[in-house]
Structure formats: structure tokens, C-alpha cells
Design brief:
Elements: H1 2-10, H2 14-18, H3 33-36, E1 41-45, E2 48-51, H4 52-70, H5 76-82, H6 84-104, H7 111-119, H8 133-142, H9 147-169, H10 175-186, E3 188-196, H11 209-219, E4 228-236, H12 238-241, H13 249-258, E5 264-265, E6 268-275, H14 279-290, H15 295-301, H16 306-309, E7 310-315, H17 322-328, E8 341-343, E9 346-356, E10 359-360, H18 363-379, H19 383-395, H20 400-406, E11 411-417, H21 434-441, E12 453-455, E13 459-469, H22 480-508, H23 513-520, E14 525-531, H24 540-547, E15 555-559, E16 566-575, H25 587-595, H26 597-613, E17 615-617, H27 619-627
Antiparallel strand pairs: 1-2, 1-17, 3-14, 3-16, 4-11, 4-13, 5-10, 6-7, 6-9, 8-9, 12-13, 15-16
Helix pairs in contact: 4-6, 4-27, 6-9, 6-26, 9-26, 10-25, 13-18
């Protein structure tokens, strides 16, 4: 969650944050520092100063905003991990830089304009929606803020907004920028390429001992053995104590008779559907069927294939249209067809195959299932009794195995496994409640009696950790076979990459890709309509990027989508015409991206101002403000 919060905390829009008013009556009240004249400065930009109280107010506002977004109160530790204080420093320094610029440019606000801004503030509106002078006075008084101080601060924010609006809000991206972005997005390329594999290089000979040993020393962390743990466990679920012998034949038959409907197997049909525009056309087709024309011929006459008319396998209840279901399940002859049926979407004729009539499973077929279910149901009543007895035995000093044996449960010993549940040979080990059990095992030390785990709806699992095998570096001899295979694969990649580069050089010097293909015994493959965002299953991202690394005629070599391959390519055509039916051809996205340049301009301007005026931060005072 902290990762998500950190990302969200950083996605701030400069225009919004630069316009934050130092008062917010709905949440915090006003900054008393505007009235009391505290001279302690946390952030200074030129002649502009941000006091301790102003910093504290902005910091608390940022915490409250994130808290509302995530539905939780942000702790001081989380705030520090998110870097909230640095974000607040950046916000306040940016605002102060704009204030210094407005002062330098002698920017101001008319009294009439300022009065209108205050009158339009909903914080000072009566229930009728009009500005209320008494409400204005009382809210400022309750916040501990003098009118003159509020008006001064409101004026400062209004002037600041003028700079922001002139720089970013009023920004209209030039046509050349929009066209360039569209061109970048729409550009697509055609290319010829060769798919190179290890078959195109000489076989890699096995490494000698020194070569393998030197290589292994540089990569042995890949082969490091994880921590392994041995443990034993005892599982208590109804199936572990169910007494199958206690269930009589009479009880089984009574249960079968009472729940016979549960053992019904519904009939199924494979249904094909031929649709018609009008009933007259459907009835004409029905007449053809009656005269001996095969159903498949009607399908072909409509220009359709078998897959076009296949609906699938259905029970009567599964059919999406019950009118069709009645007709389909009225057919009893394999391959038979229905009369014309008025379905939801018009007249149709159905062909029915793979007919399987419904039936009820016999008592003999389900006897064992019923016996097991009845025994487990009866055992549920004894679960808590045996749980308590097991706990009592453990408390009296019995080992896990002793307690299990006494209560006729089965203790299971597990040889060393890692946190994934794999043993030392990398084989999967079958475990009950696998993830839950392993998580607890790897948090428990040897000799510690852990609490039983709740498993399922009414089960328990006890375990004891018996051995911890620390993680370690494996020796080369332990992993020799895999190390040789990995070394060989690595050398093959290197050799194939070198081969691709040498072929690229020959291609760049004028040899044709067809001649190279003949030499290698390969076919020249072609791709068209490749765009920068294409994720081609053969070329892969690297080769697509290489295809856009230069103009028409560019030759390049890059790893393919399969990392064991290399792509040798030559760009044969470049087009800026948008490809049809491609996701991402929305011009609104391009316009939004172009307009975002206004925010970038604002950011650059603020950074330039901060460099020109100088920014100082008193982190000691800020730390004090954050802990108060």
C-alpha cells in the first residue's frame, strides 16, 4: 500500500499547488502566523519568507488530503517514507517564487476585483447563496485572523493565479507541436527481417574447468541455496476423524432417496444454428432439407463455415433462449433438425448432434460418496472436543507426534523445504493450506510451540519446526550440470549477438538481405504497419525500437521477443498515415499531451525563478513544526 500511496502523493499538478491559499476554513482554519508576525522562517525565496506556522499548515493539509484519498490517517512514519515534507517544501518554494516575481513586476489587483473574489468565496455565503458580511467577520474572528491579513493573503494568491493562468491555463499548443505528436504516434514502418537462432552459429564447446570456475565465481549468487526448514504437522478436519464404518447401508439409502435429485445428470446437446432474414427464407430452407439437401449445404450456400453456425454444447437450462431449448431438446435423432423456430433474433433452424439423454446416477455409483459425506458430517460435532484434548496433551508435555497418536491422528514429517514449498531437489511438496502453513513455519523458531492454524471452515493444523538450514552459496559441484547449461546458453547469446552484428555490417555495406538469407538457409520475413508501441510476438520491444532508430533504409540488429533469438532487419517503407482500427488513435489524447506542455513551461519557469532568487530551507525548524 505504501508504494501506491507514494505514487499518488507525487502526482501533483503544479498549477493547483501553486494556487493553494494559506487559509482553508473548511478544514484547518486560518494561519495565525499572518496575524502574530512570527519571524521564524522555514523557506525563503528572495525576499519572500514562509514561517513555521505556514509550513505546519501546508504540511497538515497535505497529510489530510492523502488521508481522505486513502481512507486512513497517515502516520508520521508513512509521511516520512512518502517524502511529504519535501513535497511541501517544493510547493511553498514555488509559491514564494511567484510572489517574488509579482512583486518585482509590480503586479497587483484592483479593489473591485479583490472584493468580488472575496464575495464569490462560498465559505462566506449565507444559506441563500449571497455574501454575508457577518459570516465573513465571524469566520475570520474564529480563525484568529484579522480582516486586513486575510485580504492581503487573498490578494497575493489572486496575483499568483494571474501568473499561472497566463503561463499555463492560457497555453494553446501550436499546431506544429500537435502535428508532430500525431506524426510520432501514427508513424508506422514496413521491414524485411531475418529471425536468427542458435542454429545459425557454430556449436558452443563445453567449457574447461578453469573457464567454468572463473565464470561461476562471478554469478554464483544466482545459485545461492535459500533457507530451508524441516517441520512436522498434524491436521484435524472432519475427514481426518470420520468413521466410515459407522455409517450403515440403511442410512446411505435413506440419504440417497431424500436427495435423489442431486444425482441427476442433465441431458446435453450440441447445437448448430442457421439464421435467416425472413421466415419465408427459413421455410424455403426447411423445404430443401425435407427434399434431401444436407444441412451443411445450406450453411455453405449462406457463405458460412461450420464454426459460424456452431452454438456449442448445452443442457436445457443452459440454452440462452428457452424457445430454442424446447425445440432442440425435442429432437431425438442424431443429426436431426428442428422446424423453423422464431428465436429472440429471428427465424432459425437448428441441427442437433452428440445427443446425451439425462439420467440419474444409481445408488451403487454414489454409495461411497454418500458414506464419506455422512461420516464427515457426523465428525464435525467432535472437532472441538478433539481440538481441546490435543491442546491439553500438548500443555501436559506431549510431543506433537505423541498427542496425534493418542488421538488417532496422523503426524506428518516434512523434509527441508524453502519458503515456496520446494524441497532441495526443487520438487513441489504437497502441503495442506500450503501458503498459510509455510508463512507461519518461516516465522517460527525451533522449539517454539506455535498456536494452531485455523484451516477451512472447521479445521485446525498444529506444527513444530524441527530444523532450520540457513541459506548459503552452493559449490560448483552441487550445480555443475545447470551451471554448464547456463554458461552454454550465455555463450550462445553472445555468439548470436556477434553474428547478428556482423551481418548488420554487411547489410549496411550494400549486401542484400535476400543474399544473406540464402547464405544462412533462411526465408526473408516481412512485417508491415509496425508502430512504436507495437508489441510484436516475434520482433519484441527491442527490435521494434531498433526499427525506429533511423530513417527509411535503416538496418539494425536486436534481440527478438524470444531472448534466445536475434532479429536482423531493414526498414523498407515509412508511412505517417494512421493505421485503421488501432487502439490509441484518439486525437484527444494527443491534444491532452500537447496541452500538458503548458504545465511543463510553468514548471520550468518556476525552477528558473528559484535559481535566480535563491531558495533556502531551515529543516530544523521544519522538523519541529512537523512533531508539534
Amino acid at each position: 500500500m505504501l508504494v501506491v500511496m507514494r505514487k499518488a502523493a507525487r502526482t501533483w499538478v503544479a498549477k493547483f499547488l501553486l494556487l493553494i491559499l494559506a487559509v482553508s476554513f473548511g478544514i484547518w482554519g486560518a494561519s495565525r502566523s499572518l496575524m502574530n508576525g512570527v519571524s521564524e522562517t522555514v523557506v525563503a525565496v528572495g525576499d519572500q519568507k514562509v514561517t513555521v506556522n505556514e509550513f505546519r499548515l501546508a504540511y497538515q493539509r497535505q497529510l489530510a488530503d492523502l488521508g481522505r484519498r486513502f481512507g486512513t490517517q497517515i502516520t508520521s512514519e508513512q509521511a516520512r517514507a512518502l517524502g511529504i515534507e519535501n513535497q511541501v517544501f517544493a510547493q511553498l518554494a514555488a509559491g514564494a517564487a511567484l510572489d517574488q516575481l509579482s512583486e518585482k513586476m509590480n503586479l497587483g489587483l484592483s479593489e473591485d476585483r479583490l472584493a468580488k473574489l472575496i464575495a464569490d468565496d462560498p465559505a462566506f455565503h449565507s444559506p441563500s447563496g449571497q455574501f454575508d458580511r457577518q459570516l465573513f467577520t465571524s469566520r475570520l474572528r474564529n480563525a484568529g485572523l484579522r480582516e486586513a491579513d486575510y485580504i492581503s493573503e487573498r490578494s497575493k494568491v489572486a496575483v499568483r493565479s494571474q501568473i499561472v493562468e497566463a503561463t499555463a491555463d492560457g497555453f494553446e499548443p501550436p499546431k506544429v507541436l500537435v502535428d508532430a505528436l500525431k506524426s510520432y504516434r501514427d508513424e508506422n514502418r514496413s521491414l524485411d527481417y531475418l529471425l536468427l537462432t542458435k542454429a545459425n552459429i557454430d556449436p558452443i564447446t563445453a567449457p574447461d574447468e578453469k573457464t567454468l570456475g572463473d565464470w561461476y565465481e562471478t554469478v554464483k549468487s544466482r545459485y545461492r541455496a535459500p533457507e530451508y526448514r524441516s517441520f512436522s504437522y498434524v491436521k484435524l478436519e472432519p475427514s481426518d476423524i470420520a468413521d466410515l464404518a459407522s455409517i450403515s447401508e440403511e442410512a446411505i439409502k435413506q440419504d440417497y432417496d431424500a436427495h435423489k435429485k442431486n444425482y441427476e445428470i442433465p441431458g446435453t446437446r450440441t447445437v448448430e444454428q442457421l439464421t435467416f432474414e425472413t421466415r419465408e427464407m427459413a421455410e424455403a430452407a426447411q423445404a430443401e432439407l425435407a427434399s434431401g439437401t444436407p444441412f451443411d449445404q445450406l450453411v455453405t450456400d449462406q457463405g458460412k463455415t461450420a464454426s459460424d453456425v456452431l452454438l456449442g454444447d448445452f443442457t436445457r437450462e443452459q440454452m440462452p433462449d428457452q424457445t430454442l431449448a424446447e425445440a432442440a431438446f425435442a429432437v431425438t435423432k442424431e443429426g436431426g433438425t428442428t422446424p423453423v423456430v422464431e428465436g429472440t433474433f429471428g427465424p432459425v433452424i437448428l441441427r442437433v448432434t452428440n445427443i446425451k439423454e439425462g439420467r440419474t446416477r444409481s445408488l451403487d455409483e454414489v454409495k461411497d460418496e454418500i458414506r464419506k459425506a455422512l461420516a464427515e458430517s457426523a465428525a464435525q460435532e467432535d472437532i472441538m472436543t478433539i481440538h481441546d484434548q490435543f491442546e491439553d496433551l500438548r500443555a501436559s508435555g506431549s510431543t506433537l507426534a505423541e498427542a496425534a497418536t493418542q488421538l488417532k491422528l496422523k503426524p506428518v514429517s516434512v523434509k527441508p523445504v524453502d519458503h515456496r514449498g520446494r524441497d532441495m531437489s526443487e520438487a513441489e511438496v504437497t502441503l495442506p493450506s500450503r501458503d498459510q502453513l509455510l508463512a507461519e513455519v518461516f516465522k517460527t523458531d525451533v522449539g517454539i510451540e506455535a498456536l494452531p492454524l485455523n484451516i477451512g471452515t472447521d479445521g485446525y493444523l498444529w506444527f513444530d519446526v524441527t530444523e532450520v538450514v540457513p541459506e548459503r552459496d552452493r559449490t560448483l559441484d552441487e550445480v555443475r550440470e545447470k551451471a554448464i547449461a547456463d554458461w552454454t546458453a550465455e555463450q550462445q547469446k553472445i555468439a548470436l549477438g556477434a553474428k547478428a552484428e556482423s551481418l548488420k555490417d554487411r547489410l549496411a555495406k550494400g549486401e542484400t538481405i535476400a543474399a544473406l538469407a540464402t547464405e544462412l538457409g533462411l526465408a526473408v520475413e516481412t512485417k508491415t504497419g509496425i508502430r512504436r508501441a507495437s508489441d510484436d510476438p516475434i520482433l519484441g520491444r527491442a527490435a521494434v525500437a531498433a526499427a525506429f532508430s533511423g530513417p527509411n533504409g535503416t538496418v539494425a540488429a536486436a534481440p527478438g521477443a524470444d531472448p534466445e533469438t536475434q532479429i536482423l532487419l531493414k526498414v523498407t517503407a515509412v508511412s505517417e498515415q494512421p493505421t485503421t482500427n488501432v487502439l490509441g488513435n484518439d486525437d484527444s489524447q494527443v491534444l491532452a499531451l500537447a496541452k500538458a506542455a503548458g504545465d511543463d513551461i510553468l514548471d520550468q519557469m518556476v525552477n528558473r525563478l528559484q535559481t535566480e532568487y535563491g531558495v533556502t530551507i531551515n529543516r530544523t525548524l521544519a522538523e519541529q513544526a512537523m512533531v508539534r
